[in-house]
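Researcher: Good morning. I'm working through a list of sequences from a screen, and I'd like to move beyond sequence-only analysis. For each chain I'm collecting a predicted structure so we can compare shapes side by side. This is the next one on the list. No need for commentary yet; just the structure.
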Amino acid sequence: MVNVITSFSRITILSFVLIFTLIDLVQIFEYKLNEAVYSILSTIQSVMVVLFLFNGTFVLFMAKEDAGMIMLGIFTCIFFVGFYVAVYRLSDFVPRALINNMFLFISFGIIALARLKTEFAAKHMIFLFITLVISLLVIMGLKYVDRIERFMYIFAIVGIILLLIVAFFGQVENGAKLSFAAGPIRFQPSEFIKLSFLFFISGCIVTFKDMRGFLIASIGSAVHVVALVLARDLGTALIFLTAYVFVMFIAYKNYIVLSLEIGVATIGGILAYHYFPHIQTRFIAWTDPLSVVDDKGYQISQSLFAIGTGGWLGSGLNKGMPNKIPVVTMDFIFAAISEEMGAIVGVCLIVCFACTVMLILNAAFNCNNSFYMLVSSGIAVLFAVQTILNIGGVIKFIPSTGVTLPFISYGGNSLLSLMLCFLIVSCSNNLYFDSRQGRRHDR
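Model: Good morning. Structure tokens for this chain:
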């Protein structure tokens, strides 16, 4: 009976995800859609997310005979309702399409983690509620910060100091210093400094409105990146650098400067390859993983085997062997999803990530103030680059960088950072406060 349900669920899961994805391709034109059409499409997406979530948790309940699987689905839905209510109270416009995408990714994360390691799924659920409460407190605080761009230097100084602390005193993980621990709590500052970094460069641009803003933002960005290089956290350094390049281009639209920045970044990448052994190791594993399958290429080889074994429709939940992949709950969770849910679901997931970037940019370009327009644009870039680096590494498109897959990979630090980013985008029209003019569109 379990085998029949698992086999049939491959089709139902694919159907739910495919319908969601097709609607997503329409929703990226949300500002051109009729309000009634937008509402209907968003409602259908919400239903697809809930059906997908309970389909996955029910199959795992049947396979593992663990009632906790159903409870995970119920608590995830409670979280969804809480998030919706919070955004509705904080913002004039609720970007339902964007929020639905976030809910889909969270559902993928809960199902995948519950399949791989039940206790991780339970912890991830706890992280969801904790991060929501913390993020809401931060958002409510931001609404009362008068001209937030005035604090740009504070954002830069705090971020750089934290990165340097990690560079000199952090714990080494896979060749890089990423975090430090305080008892059972593991703190990874770079996840939160992504946001303070965007606040800094956006503040420079909005405050000076000329080349002074460009120079100050460039110097501050360079120091951030150097601190990350000292920590050998080159994946995050690349994310910071890319965010800086594109936010600067959005602000100044100068192709010459863009070309110079890309040139400098390319030179930096070449130097990083020559001076950091763990980067060379990853390149060897990328170029020919089977030649070093017993050592450096084991992880990527197992990832490719898993995706290939799953085929187009997948092996079915709890029917594959994703736990053979090292660090599967974090860096390589996309391979686990593709193995058991199928390559078509994997492609749909990639399309949904791309649509999410477009939806964030839609929100940014329709923001009523320059500061949060730039911040939201930067968030879109951060989200896009992080997704590309993760999935690209999993499918051997690029060398593995060790970054997590947004909202899906296990980890409280990444989850809190992303939750805060999405709340900022969702409430961007209601956050900026200038005591000299009052808040625009405040409810």
